[in-house]
């Protein structure tokens, strides 16, 4: 902390901004306030230029090699779960998935598309390492294997991969919507993001309207792809909670997996 204050200069106060990584800070100097992140996403400049995240002010490299980014401080609110149905959410996600600049940047820094075969192999490794002997998980893995042909060979886009409502923020002043926390983003089928969002937040009868706002129609292929990725993500969450000693949370997702299958 003191290192950041020394780096910014006299008069700046730096405090943790929360978050899972512990690498985010709020810096204040009088009436000025900025959001700082240590070693943030390398494509933050593109996200800022396209209005997907709050404006990037500067980027500087420290002597130890860490990169500090400063963004405009936005006084805003996280979206509530019931706000995820808003057309503004669908429009922003469509903008992100449709950004050729973002996709080019991802590919330039070596991000290979996450193909279903690799995703399935990673899940095998995760479940074996977690040592979860579960018929339910085996049923899920069998489903993914037998239906993998339904998710092959679709165009890839930049997916956020963590579309939880807490990562969507609306600016109190401008009413601009932002999607933040890009640390887990990857190149993948857009059905990965769309499926997680619809299954988590949107009543099934409202899917066609939400997707219309996004810019696509609901067909059987999209249904199959969304379902495949939601099953895969649910198994990932089961192993994640088991590895962290959270059996009750893991059990909730095991029960959810049953409903999916």
What is the topology?
Layout: H1 2-8, E1 13-16, E2 24-29, E3 32-38, H2 44-49, E4 56-61, E5 67-72, E6 76-78, H3 87-97, H4 100-108, H5 116-130, H6 135-146, E7 157-159, E8 168-171, E9 177-179, E10 186-188, H7 191-201, H8 207-214, H9 220-243, H10 247-260
Antiparallel strand pairs: 1-2, 2-3, 3-5, 4-5, 6-8, 7-10, 8-9
Helix pairs in contact: 3-8, 5-6, 5-9, 6-9, 7-9, 9-10
Domain Aminoglycoside phosphotransferase: 16-228
Pfam families: APH
Organism: Alkalicoccobacillus murimartini
In CATH, the homologous superfamily of the largest domain goes by the name Aminoglycoside phosphotransferase (APH), C-terminal lobe
How many DSSP-defined strands? 10
Q: Which consecutive residue ranges, at least 5 long each, have pLDDT under 50? A: none
The CATH topology of the largest domain comes to Aminoglycoside 3'-phosphotransferase, Chain: A, domain 2
Please indicate the count of domains. 2
What does the largest sheet look like? Answer: 5 strands, antiparallel
- The number of distinct helices, counting runs of at least 4 residues, comes to 10
Intertermini distance? 48 Å
| CATH architecture group name of the largest domain | Alpha-Beta Complex
Q: What is the string of helix and strand elements?
A: HEEEHEEEHHHHEEEEHHHH
CATH class of the largest domain, please? Answer: Alpha Beta
Please indicate the percent range of residues in DSSP E strands (runs of 2 or more): 15-25%
